[in-house]
Amino acid sequence: MIRFLTLCGLLAVLASPAMAGGPFPPITSEAVKTECAECHLLYRPQMLPAKSWAAMMADLANHFGEDASLAPGTLKEVTDYHLAHASDVDQPRRAKKFLAGVDLSNPPMKISDTPRFIRKHDDVPVAAFTSKAVGSKSRCQKCHTKAAEGNFEDDFVVIPGYINVFGVLVKKVWE
Ligand code: HEC
Ligand code: HEC
C-alpha cells in the first residue's frame, strides 16, 4: 500500500509540469500579450508579488521613463491577470522561488531586483549586462535564449561576448 501511494505521488508530480521545473506556463491573456510585449519581453507574472504588480499597474503612465498607460477596460484585464498569477498567489514551485526573500513591506518594482534574480546572477559581470549586445538586466532574452517561451533554465543561457570555461565566465577578447 505504501509503495502504491508513493507511486501515485510520483505520478502526480510527473504529471504536473508546473511543479516539476520546466518553463513557466504560457500567458493566456490576449490583452497582456498585446500590451506588455510592445517594448520588451513579455515578463512572467509569477516573478513578482501582487503588491509589485498592483503598484506598477496603478502608475503605467510613469513606467520606467515611458508612458505605458492603457484604456480602463484593458488596464483592468491586464491588472487582474498579473494579480491572479503573482508570485505570492500562483503556487507552482517556480513562483515560490521568486517570492523567497522578497520584502513584502517594500516590494521590488523590477524582477531584476528580486533576491532570486540577484542571487542567480551573482557571477555575471556587470559589463555583460551593460554590453551593447545586451543593454540591461531587463533584457532577459539576450542571454536566456528561450525566455520568450518562459524557459529560464541554465541549459539555455548564452551570454553574448562570453564563453563558459568549466564554470568560469571568460570574456571573448578576440571578438
Ligand atoms: C512604452 C513601452 C513599454 C510598455 C508598453 C511596457 N513597458 Fe515595461 N518597461 C519599459 C521600459 C523602458 C522598462 C525598463 C527596461 C530596462 O531598464 O531596460 C520596463 C521594465 C519593465 C519591468 C522590469 C524589468 C526588470 O528588469 O525586472 C517589468 C516587470 C515590466 N516592464 C512590466 C511591464 C508590463 C506588465 C507591461 C504591460 C502592462 C509593460 N511593462 C509595458 C517599457 C514598457
Ligand atoms: C547577461 C546575461 C543575462 C541576462 C540579461 C539575464 N540573465 Fe538570467 N542568468 C544568466 C546566467 C549566466 C545564469 C546562470 C546560469 C547557470 O547557472 O549556469 C542565469 C540564471 C537565471 C535563472 C536561474 C536558472 C536556473 O535554472 O537556476 C533565472 C530564473 C534567471 N536567470 C532569470 C532571468 C530573468 C528573469 C532575466 C531578465 C529580467 C534574466 N535572467 C536576465 C544570464 C543572464
Question: What brief labels describe this structure?
Answer:
175 residues, mainly alpha, two-stranded antiparallel ribbon, 7 helices, binds heme C
How would you characterize this protein structure?
With about 180 residues, the chain is mostly helical. The chain has two domains: about 25-120, no CATH class; about 125-175, no CATH class. About 35% of the residues lie in helices and about 5% in strands. The protein has seven helices and two strands; from the N terminus they run H-H-H-H-H-H-H-E-E. It has a two-stranded antiparallel ribbon. A hairpin with a 2-residue loop joins strand 1 (about 160-165) and strand 2. Helix 3 (about 50-55) packs antiparallel against helix 4. The chain is globular. It starts with a helix and ends with a strand. One heme C (HEC) binds near residues 78 and 111.
How many DSSP-defined strands? 2
Elements, N to C (H/E): HHHHHHHEE
C-alpha termini separation: 62 Å
What's the alpha carbon Rg, rounded to whole Å? 18 Å
Query: Low-confidence spans: pLDDT under 50, at least 5 residues?
Result: 7-20
Portion in strands: under 5%
**How much helix is in the residues?**
25-40%
Question: What summary fits the major beta sheet?
Answer: 2 strands, antiparallel
Mean pLDDT score: 90
What is the overall silhouette?
globular
Compact overview of the structure:
This protein is mainly α. The protein has seven helices and two strands. It has two domains: 25-120, no CATH class; 124-175, no CATH class.
